[in-house]
Specification:
With 298 residues, the protein is an alpha/beta fold. It is 36% helix and 17% strand. The strands form two sheets. It has a six-stranded mixed β-sheet. The longest helix is centred in the middle third of the chain and has 17 residues. Its cofactor is pyridoxal 5'-phosphate.
């Protein structure tokens, strides 16, 4: 009898495509990893499945349990999908100013959504999640400190990029939120070739870019190891949004704001280099930002 995949088995193996027009005349190749092609629409599908499946394998959780997570959006949507697949009750805590599409997607998968104020932000959401766990209301997966987050990228995203580039990658660019993507990919890619340069993106002071942060020292993700990042680049909200809109209108690539920032930084890198193969993570799709008006701005 023919074997058909489940939705869980469709996570990963996303396309790696070449930027065509925006890079101009250059000896470099800029490649984009389209993580919006994952079933729940973002790179976070990978760690979401990893955190639940591996905790289940260790006997730490079982179907029917309540899971709790603080999220700015993409991880929450991915965890809501993963919980639905594997039979868990999912409680998600997020700042109230995140887009309506994100909130509705979480609810569609059956998750319970709790909002904190914009002022409380992700720090407040993380504090509330830990308080709920302390009260016995569920288990916090803790994407910020859970080794199963970067493990997902060590075992899938990194190997895919290495294989898809035939081992020719010279620079890897990723926006940094939980930092799971950059940590896992760095560990794998540098394991194959220590000369691969790992470039992380953070918002410049005063910029608000969904999904990425300049973390206060007290809230720096425990999974983050600064030694695995060769260069950290600041990106403005304005440049990220402008590049995001250009990607849609000039390249046909419909993605979110942090992905625009990653491509803007890849273009900036390209201006400094020759004969480089630069891979940037397009972490999600643009449709979950439509209600914010960012695609209507000029």
């Amino acid at each position: 009898m023919r074997e058909y995949p489940t939705i869980e088995q469709c996570v990963g193996n996303t396309p790696l495509i070449r930027l065509q027009r925006m890079q101009g005349q250059t000896s470099n190749t800029i490649l984009l990893k389209l993580e919006g092609n994952n079933p729940a629409g973002s790179v976070k599908d990978r760690p979401a499945m990893s955190m639940i499946a591996r905790a289940e394998e260790r006997g730490e959780i079982k179907p029917g349990d309540t899971l709790i997570e603080a999220t700015s959006g993409n991880t929450g949507i991915a965890l809501a999908m993963a919980a639905a697949i594997r039979g868990y009750r999912m409680v998600l805590i997020m700042p109230s100013h995140m887009s309506d599409e994100r909130k509705q997607a979480m609810s569609a998968y059956g998750a319970v959504l709790i909002e904190v104020s914009q002022e409380e932000g992700m720090e407040g959401a993380r504090d509330l999640a830990m308080a709920m766990q302390a009260r016995g209301e569920g288990r916090v997966l803790d994407q910020f400190g859970n080794a199963d987050n970067p493990h997902a990228h060590l075992t899938s995203t990194g190997p895919e990029i290495w294989s898809q580039t035939g081992g020719t990658i010279t620079h890897f660019v990723s926006s940094m939120g939980t930092t799971g993507t950059i940590m896992g990919c760095s560990a794998y890619l540098k394991g194959q070739n220590p000369d691969v340069q790992i470039v992380g993106l953070q918002p410049e002071d005063g910029s608000s870019i969904p999904g990425i942060r300049r973390w206060p020292q007290a809230y720096l993700p425990a999974i983050y190891n600064a030694a695995r990042v060769d260069r950290v680049m600041d990106i403005s909200q304005r440049e990220s949004e402008q590049t995001m809109r250009r990607l849609a209108s000039e390249e046909g690539i419909f993605c979110g704001v942090s992905s625009g920032g990653a491509v803007a930084s890849a273009l900036r890198l390209s201006a400094e280099l020759e004969n480089a193969v630069i891979v940037a993570i397009i972490c999600d799709r643009g449709d979950r930002y439509l209600s914010t008006g960012v695609f209507a701005a000029h």
